[in-house]
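Good morning,

Both structures are done.
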Amino acid sequence: MERRVLGAGGGRGPLTIARAVTTCCLAAALAAGGAAAFAKDASKEAKESKKEKAPAASKAPPGVTLNACGCYRKGNACVCTDKKAKCECPEDCEPVGCEEKRQKEIEREIAAETKRAEEDEKKRAAAEAAAREKAERERRRADEAQEADDGNAPAGDKQPDEKPAKPAKPGHKDRDRK
């Protein structure tokens, strides 16, 4: 009985068949992964192209042109075809609530500007107070220097006026008697 080493010799041994099956499975898996990636990319492109198109033309009646917000006029009223329409059409037919949102944004901006102006005013007032205080100190120093030049002692070095000497106390009466 002859023993064959699997895969040895150029024959079609079990190892060669196993390699072929493994290679085919690997190739199939790669092909399926590539196809899935291609399908995923295609679906992304389709979604992006839908976003770029005009808003929901299928919901609008035929012959009506939509503005950038996805709305159109029907008599005196506005009709919007998209619930998630953006407020990008000031003074035109817009979704409900856009004017209120715009007004709130303006009020926020006004409040921020007012706060900024108040802070600037406080800083300016503090700077002016510091400048006045510094000028006052400089004026005092100049006055003290002027007094020193005039022959008077500086204000900080003045000595209190001397009081006249007290008269000597008379001695004790008891001492004389002893």
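Second structure follows.
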Amino acid sequence: MADCVFPTRTARFGLAQHRPEDLLRSQCMGIGYGEDLLVCAALGVDMADCVFPTRTARFGLALTFDGHVNLRLSKYSEDYNVIDLDCPCPTCDNGNENGKGLTRSYLHLLASRETVGAHAVTLHNIAYQHRLMKGAREAILEDRFPKYLKTFFKRFYHDGSNYPSWAVDALRSVGVDILEDQPGVIPRANSDPQWDPAA
């Protein structure tokens, strides 16, 4: 996955700009939430490593651009969609076009009961993070990273009311206001993650 390492242009968003161009800026260990990864990238982090996508998969939690999906919840027992219709992973199989992807209903049966369920969700979660960071890298190269951040946060926090204040403040510190198009939104002070908020 070498194509996910950020180009040195990332540094213009953070403090790492004072290091020589040919050196890796920084690596963050233990950063796995999508919003954390993107904020760290904006602050100049070039690489991150975390068990989050695999550990949460063991408990039936799937990561998506629309928020986390807790497959153990009963509401997924009759949901015959794949985790993410746009995901190219083997679990989703690009939206279940050929009937080969695993449905949320099937994964609900397997989640936290069978190791194969954890394996399937792990494949999806890693693919999600790869897509997230590949998109960030492309946005940086194309000088549209602030827009990428705004789009991600608006989609991930559906109604806008759950934007974490730490993320808003950190991004503002590097000149990116993810709330500039949403004047009435007040970020939440609580930084607890949102686990399937539609539950």
